[in-house]
Amino acid sequence: MTRANRGAMVVLCAVILLSGAGGAAAGLWDALKDRLLGSSPTQSAPLTTGEISQGLLQALSVGAEKAVGRASAAGGFLDNPTIHISLPKPLQRAGSTLRAVGLGTQVDELETALNRGAEKASAQALPIFLTAIRQLTFQDVEAIWKGGDDAATRYLREKTGEPLFSAFEPVVHDAVREVGVTRLYDSLTANPLARVALSGSDWNLDTYATTKALDGVFTLLAEEEKKIRTDPVARTTELLQRVFGL
Questions:
Q1: Quick check: 11 pLDDT over 80?
Q2: 162 within domain boundaries
């Protein structure tokens, strides 16, 4: 028998003997269990508020990177039914009439272009999201940590939604123009029927496109946060493993 095996046998015998001992031996009993099981005080140390906070920020940063990557990929919006951008409701309601007068192709092209614009804008969204995440301070770290699968994402949106919108809107504005959304929209609304469909509504192209693009990225971010919380494979750093592996 090797020295290591003899040591293990000694520890095991001591554990068995102490299992029936009183409170005086409790500390030694715990120490022997730790040695036998290979655990240590540092491994079982409770998480600090700072660690949890940094873990939440890291989860959002990692999630944002993956969400933006998915949203900005070809078909990221167009081919994903969860975040696909449909035409605004006034145009949807007039859709059958517009198609009946030969504007069906323009209607379809506008919807496709809206999604392409969101994909293009999303490619530039990561720095905007990371800036917002770095500025985030959690007022109730533990509640968010132990909250639902998308608790941190919801908190991020609640606290930074308006600044994110303001920073993202000019990016979306440029992107939708580049892919032809503005041209298609102006061409479509030049038709009297389309103008009637939109009359009385306060619909704005940039506002609508920005809102829908942000909705899509936040939806994907929530999905990525859920993966980190529920799937060990998604915890790609030691801190994520420690904070969400409990």
A1: no
A2: yes
